[in-house]
Design a protein that fits this description.
With 218 residues, this protein is mostly helical. The protein has 8 helices and no strands.
């Protein structure tokens, strides 16, 4: 195992990481989450997290690990693109944007896991900050993924059409992030969260195909 190649490990990370993060997002927020809660009521969100079973709270810590795995896989792809080759410039610009999204997700979910009422303090403030970080980092990350997808679309070793689909999907995600930050009401945020979930499923499928492609070439 210690001799595993970078290309093989990158492929494994891309095949597993995003899919794991997406599955946990769906389980925690869409299946186990209380659908009756007003997600713009940060006090209610805080109390919901606090009252969740321990196993459910622990699930909050796992999605960032999947995103870190995805980031590593992307760095491996970047390493295979030679200087001056197709996609190099776009990939180099998009990757740090995606990295910012990964770091922000760690911060937001770490904060949300502590969004509970303390003596003299309300967890609603932490829940509000976590939501703000999540929306803004989603905007930056979505732009990064668009650039990465456009870069990959120029590479012969990957599926060009699928890459274009991802670029279009995450242009929509970027727009949704702006709408979520600008239009502060429950109906808008529920719609945005639902569409985010769909976009996560789509990019997970894309990531799996890229990961399997890398494993075949390893």
């Amino acid at each position: 195992m210690g001799n595993i190649s970078e290309l093989k490990l990158g492929g494994i990370c891309l095949a597993i990481g995003p899919a794991m993060a997406t599955a946990l997002f769906i389980i925690f927020f869409l299946i186990l989450g209380d659908s009756n809660i007003d997600i713009t009521d940060f006090s209610a969100v805080s109390n919901d997290v606090q009252s969740a079973p321990v196993i459910q709270q622990l699930l909050l810590f796992l999605p960032p690990i999947g995103l870190i795995m995805a980031y590593y896989g992307m760095t491996v792809i970047q390493g295979t693109i030679g200087k001056g080759e197709n996609g190099e410039a776009l990939f180099k610009l998009g990757l740090p944007m995606f990295a910012i999204n990964v770091v922000a997700t760690v911060i937001a979910l770490g904060g949300l896991s502590q969004a509970q009422s303390w003596v003299g303090s309300s967890g609603s403030n932490i829940a509000a900050i976590a939501q703000g970080i999540s929306l803004y980092s989603s905007l930056i990350g979505a732009i990064g993924i668009v650039l990465i997808a456009l870069a990959i679309s120029t590479r012969d070793e990957f599926n060009t059409l699928f890459a274009y689909v991802i670029a279009i999907v995450f242009i929509v995600v970027a727009i949704l992030s702006i709408i979520g930050m600008a239009n502060f009401n429950e109906d808008t945020w529920k719609l945005v969260n639902a569409l985010f979930g769909i976009s996560y499923i789509i990019i997970s499928l894309w990531s799996i195909t890229i990961g399997l492609n890398m494993l075949k070439r390893a």
